[in-house]
Write a structure and sequence with these properties.
Layout (H helix, E strand, L loop, with lengths): L1 H13 L4 H23 L5 H10 L11 E8 L2 E8 L7 E7 L13 H14 L1 E6 L11 H13 L2 H6 L2 E11 L1 H13 L11 E5 L11 H5 L8 H12 L3 H8 L17 H4 L2 H4 L12 H6 L23 E9 L3 H13 L4 E10 L13 H17 L1
Parallel strand pairs: 3-4, 3-5, 5-6, 6-7, 7-8
Antiparallel strand pairs: 1-2, 2-4
Length: 393
């Protein structure tokens, strides 16, 4: 408790206008996490199953309004929520394929009120078709199931016959996602480049405080924000490990940053923050050579070394051909440096990147657009994101 109090006080000094933001969400999140830990300790439910049960309470039914028609459907047997704008237009519409966050494991999160509202805003303000993917989740399903579900929906939607059905312009399609959804969006965009069956190309991608690498969980952003609200390092480590397995040995190795086997040492050049971070984000941190872990973990759970799970691990040649990219990062976020390093790597190979760094935000800021945490900060960031889409899509 004392550690949390110290970190909140420090954060409030830096973000004085969002006291209620920190107070409400940290108290709420902390209570949920404590409940999950207690239930798991008693042997009643898995930690992540408790989180899934609680978030399912916030499920929002597919209710249409005067601006948007909302329906639940399936694309090639994968559930998705479809938002169709009611505005009449003579031409074809734009489209945004949105991938929700939640650590690859939060139940029905795409139908939670903040995500539902963000999709409605996007559809209405852009007069665009929005597809929100409901992929299968950990701990019942592990990587690569989540990636495969999203890829299935995207590939299905990009068929010309489907685009004609929904009145979508094949030259104006975006893939977007936040947090774990940003991870999936980035990975799918990369994999589409090598899929000869997909003829329609994405025009843009938008990655909102994305999780992009599994190798170094001791980046400056992880150290600076280890105990910050919403996504402390311990929770992010658990999200990563649960994405691949319920075996606690991987979680323990990741927590100490000793999970990468020596035979995979060549991958560290893709996440070497001493080369990829601007000086302002390095602060007083000193880069240290990796400490390698057991080869057995890499053999048992190769997913954490797979670029489909960690998009920063691809060779530079695999970045060529990616669409114009928008990356949003938050200063007080363990995932901050993942996004910034991806910006650096994309720019190095000539990809056009727009980087919005929000100095006064923490992870998950786009979730704070509905009661009881309906905050000006959340609306400001949402407006920046939607305005960028409107200009570039």
């Amino acid at each position: 408790f004392f550690q949390k109090t110290c970190d909140i006080t420090e954060l409030l000094q830096k973000i004085p206008n969002v006291y209620i933001y920190i107070h409400v969400v940290w108290q709420r999140k902390g209570n949920i996490m404590t409940m999950a830990e207690f239930a798991e300790w008693l042997g009643l439910m898995h930690y992540m199953e408790v989180l899934m049960m609680i978030t399912s309470i916030e499920y929002t039914a597919p209710i249409s309004d005067e601006n948007v028609t909302v329906t639940d459907t399936k694309f090639n047997n994968v559930p998705a929520r479809l938002y169709m704008p009611r505005k009449q237009s003579s031409g074809l519409k734009r489209a945004v394929i949105y991938i929700h966050g939640g650590g690859w494991l939060t139940y029905f999160i795409s139908a939670m009120e903040p995500y539902d509202l963000l999709s409605r805003w996007t559809a209405n303000k852009l007069n665009a078709v929005v597809v929100s993917v409901e992929y299968r989740l950990a701990p019942m399903y592990h990587f690569p199931v989540q990636f495969e579900d999203v890829y299935t929906v995207v590939k299905f939607f990009l068929q010309n016959s489907v685009l004609v059905q929904y009145g979508v312009d094949p030259n104006r399609i975006c893939i977007s996602g936040d947090s774990a959804g940003g991870n999936l969006a980035a990975a799918v965009a990369q994999q589409l480049l090598d899929d000869l069956e997909v003829k329609v190309k994405l025009k843009i991608q938008a990655l909102l405080y994305p999780a992009l690498q599994t190798l170094d969980l001791d980046l400056p952003s992880y150290k600076d924000n280890e105990n910050k609200p919403i996504l402390p390092k311990s929770l992010m480590v658990r999200f990563w490990s649960e994405y691949f397995t319920t075996d606690v040995s991987l979680q323990e190795a990741m927590a100490s940053n000793k999970h990468v086997p020596a035979e995979s040492s060549h991958l560290f050049r893709f996440v070497n923050w001493s080369n990829l971070l601007p000086e302002k984000f390095k602060k007083d941190h000193v880069y240290a050579s990796p400490i390698y872990g057991s080869s057995m973990l890499g053999k048992k759970y190769p997913g954490f070394l797979d670029p489909r799970a960690a998009p920063l691990l691809v060779e530079d040649t695999k970045l060529l051909g990616l669409p114009v990219t928008y990356v949003l990062t938050c200063q007080h976020d363990v995932l901050r440096d993942d996004g910034i390093m991806y910006v650096s790597r994309l720019r190095e190979v000539g990809i056009e990147v727009i980087h919005d760094h929000i100095e006064d935000a923490i992870h998950g800021v786009l979730m704070f657009i509905t009661s009881p945490t309906d905050l000006a900060l959340g609306h400001r960031v949402a407006n920046k994101y939607i305005e960028w889409l409107n200009i570039n899509l």
